[in-house]
Amino acid sequence: MRKRLWLLWVRLLPLRSRLQLDGGIILGCLVLSVGLWIGVSLDRVYQIKTDVPLAVDGIPADKVVHLYPGQVAVQFESRGAELVRFRQMYDTVHLPYQMVSGLSMLDHSQLEDRVRKVLPAHSQRLLVVTDPVIVEIESQRKYRVPLRLKGDLQPAPTYGFENPPVLMTDSVSLYGPQGMLESVEAWYVTAPGDILVTQQAEIRLPVDRPDTLPGVQVSPQEVTVRLSPRRFIEARLRLPVVIRDLPPHTSVRLDHPVVQVRCLVPEDMYSAFMADSADWRIQIPYASLQPDFPYLAPEPSLPSAVRLISQTPRFVSFVIVRDLTRL
Fold it and tell me: Quick check: helix, strand or coil at residue 281?
């Protein structure tokens, strides 16, 4: 058995060597063909259309330059090898401020020489295909505008703010193009939502970024907000509605003589508030009733620190009754 296996191995050995030799030849041919294809591709001349960014150098500190559009569309021809280097070293067309300061637009002839400097060295048939570039130069100014809080700050559960949050800085400075800032009436600090504070505190909040106003700088970028949270407890009251100053022999019937009120009371006031509320009434003068519109809106008189949540009902209908037998 071993002798047969050995004879089989000896017979297959030349075939194995030949297969290895053929595989090497095939791989070598494949590498050579790929190399030839790359060489031919890099030596060919291609027509390219692309956008090249524009930038202005040497702008004075008190000026802002806007170019519309901010890039120039060009068409040219160049060899593949140079295009590879061009894509790797993609550059911007730099225009000196002295060149654009006295112009309202740049035409093709003014752009071609500058564009040619950033294209491959042996480019041919350069053609600027974009519209003329509009040039706008603005002076930069510094403005002071009011600062306001946008949105609501929510304290920790069962807490509320005794006083509205206070911005310790009432205004910010804006520096940028005059045309952009002339219409800005105020700047904002956006409230982040929930603020888990349970006692008086001062927090730092970022001023809104001028993302929609390119070239504008805001100072300061953070401001302090003072918070005065206070713990509240919900109270439920049943307040009778009373019509006062009735004329003689006159009464008023109400479809809901009692109003149910839900409110939030500061924790340190709760006991005294509930004791005093036992004798409270919602008093409405008779002179304020309008017979042609038989509805009234009772408003409970609550201490300033107490916050009304809901009132049921909001409106009460009434009927004026006169005792004609006693007139």
Answer: coil
CA 244 to CA 231: how far, in whole Å? Answer: 36
Minimum mean pLDDT range among 24-33, 202-211, 216-225, 287-296: 24-33
Q: Hey, is 175 helix, strand or coil?
A: strand
CA 86/CA 120 separation, integer angstroms: 6
| Residues facing residue 78 across a β-bridge | 46
For residues 67 and 136, what is the distance between their CA atoms, to the nearest angstrom? 7
DSSP output for 61-75:
TTEEEEEESSEEEEE
- Partnered with residue 251 across adjacent β-strands are 321
97 sits in which H/E element: helix 97-100
Extract the tokens encoding 190: 């956006």
User: 47 CB contacts (<8 Å, ≥6 apart)?
Assistant: 75, 76, 77
Q: Which residue has the higher pLDDT, 8 or 150?
A: 150
Sheet with 166-167: strands ordered across: 166-167, 222-227, 201-206
Cβ atoms 241, 280 nearer than 8 A: no
Instruction: Name the token pair of 17.
Output: 């060597």
CA-based nearest residue to 223, from 175, 189, 257: 189
Cα 310 to Cα 163, 260, 295, 315, distances in angstroms: 21, 8, 19, 12
Owner of token pair 């500061």: 266
